[in-house]
Amino acid sequence: MVVLTGAGVSAESGINTFRDADGLWEGHDVMEVATPQGFEKNPELVLDFYNQRRRQLLAVSPNGAHKALVDLEKHFDVHIITQNVDDLHERAGSSKVIHLHGELLKARSSQDPNNIIDWNTDIELGHLCSGGKQLRPHIVWFGEEVPLLEKAANITAEADILIIIGTSMQVYPAASLVHYAPDDCTIYFIDPRPNIKESDFNNLTIIENSATKGMGLLAQKLLEDHSR
Predict the structure, then answer these.
(1) Among 65, 78, 144, 224, which is least packed, fewest CB within 10 Å?
(2) ∠ CA 144-147-152 to the nearest 5 degrees?
């Protein structure tokens, strides 16, 4: 079972979704706070932006959707591939989680993308990595490689059941993952306002509901089917 999750899963925990309707992220142009060029131009602004996101994350808790996925893990081999940078899946108890876009509770060297450390407080100018370079958030910014994409594609290619939840599947390259699912894979798409139709994919069921309610209903169905 492979689960693709996005911002809608964390929204009900109180974490704001990526962009507002006007395209701004918490009042900022994403090019200012989510690109290497933005960091080079104004590192203090970018660090402060993610410091605020990190503080917000530490103040919230996993919700019913996260917990329903943990319940499924007791009966299925569940792999979660998330576009989210929070740790709510892990805090809920999920054990196999791939973060395509990085992790807010980690920092990395601004020079060496492989020099990554755990970090749960503010990152300030002058906080340096072991190589003496400025630390930055361990976030995949626009224009940067998505290093775990190939691993995620390989896992999706093995899926018997694919659940898409809390993501409109509009952000590439993450949105391309659904196309790696085998032809006979059963797909569930949970979204209160779905932007796809059941005829768009083989074996697709759309659950028009919020992440928590939709995931709760689906988990119940899958567990009942499994116990038959």
Answers:
(1) 224
(2) 130
Q: What CATH number corresponds to the domain at position 173?
A: 3.40.50.1220
Query: Could you give the CA distance from residue 223 to residue 228 in angstroms, rounded to a whole number?
Result: 9
List pLDDT tens digits, range 48-66: 999 999 999 999 999 999 9
Strand order in the sheet with 116-118: 116-118, 102-109, 135-139
- Which one of 66, 89, 99, 101 is the catalytic residue? 101
Query: pTM (2 decimals)?
Result: 0.93
For 88-109, the pLDDT digits (tens) are 999 999 999 999 999 999 999 9
Instruction: Pull the structure tokens for residue 159.
Output: 């899926």
User: Residue 127 sits in which domain range?
Assistant: 2-227
Please confirm, yes or no, whether 127 is among the known catalytic residues: no
Q: What is the dihedral of CA 167, 173, 178, 180, to 10 degrees?
A: -160
Does position 171 have pLDDT exceeding 70, yes or no?
A: no
